[in-house]
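Study the following:
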Amino acid sequence: MSTKQVVSIRPFIRTTHAFQKLRVCKRCGQYTCLWEDHCTACGRGTLATVDERASSRVKRRTARDLFITVILGAAATYFGETIDQTMAAASVSLLLLAGLIFMKKRSFQVEQQRELKRMLRQDEEAIRQGINRNWALVAEARKQDEALAYEMLREIGSLVYNDRIRLQQVALLQSFVLRSDMDLQLKPLLLHSFERLLAEYIGEIARLKPELVREDAIRYVATYEVNILQLHNGIQILTAVAAAAVRKSKYIELFPSLITRYARFMPKDRFMRLYRTLELYPGKARGGLAESVSRVYNEKYRDSYADVRV
């Protein structure tokens, strides 16, 4: 009997850049990549995105520069010895102020990006400490809600690239009943060495969401094919991945040996897709793939598809 949990996983909010997952407390400077409303260090609701923090700093500098310009202009106007000097000082001050405002508006985005890079570089250690605090919270969350723990690890994993975090995510995912309507990931979870849980997860993804099985995942499976064959469901995993690979002619060309070995076990619709692709693009078949597919077709499907014309 399956011991997997039926869970609901929130969709993952993707950002253009990974650092945009970070938020920083405007009060104490602690960083986080989670979604808490209040800073876990000082308890205040003063968390802001790093983009907002960088923009705030640029705006403060702009306000300081404008204030200094106004003060200097007012002083020059006040100490004018004649009406002409006073009018000239006031005019020049207004022109300088208008020019400064125009330049600051034009350069705001550039300055904001420059400040953001400077802030991330200077606060590198604070960012590391903040993410470590987030990671420490996962163990507590896992005792109460494993789906929440996975969601937390998913956020941390978007910033920290190591196999330990990836394996923790895979282990949690393999304890859930996965569905095709879930917002699942594969590429960010690939490891640098063979892991049974990852191989089983790839096999499940290949059946549920084959569009997620891309070149790097197929290459992982091909590299550790011997290890996967030793699993009780190894043939099923390899067949599912080979079936997912036939979605694109590019993968057929890149992994002919893998597809050749498991074409016989593919579902009928996947096999026929492979067969028709090779008919349309015979140049994609290498290493005896065409001969093997033709042989399987003649043995299993020729009668039912005798009248099919591509």
In short: The longest helix spans residues 83-122.
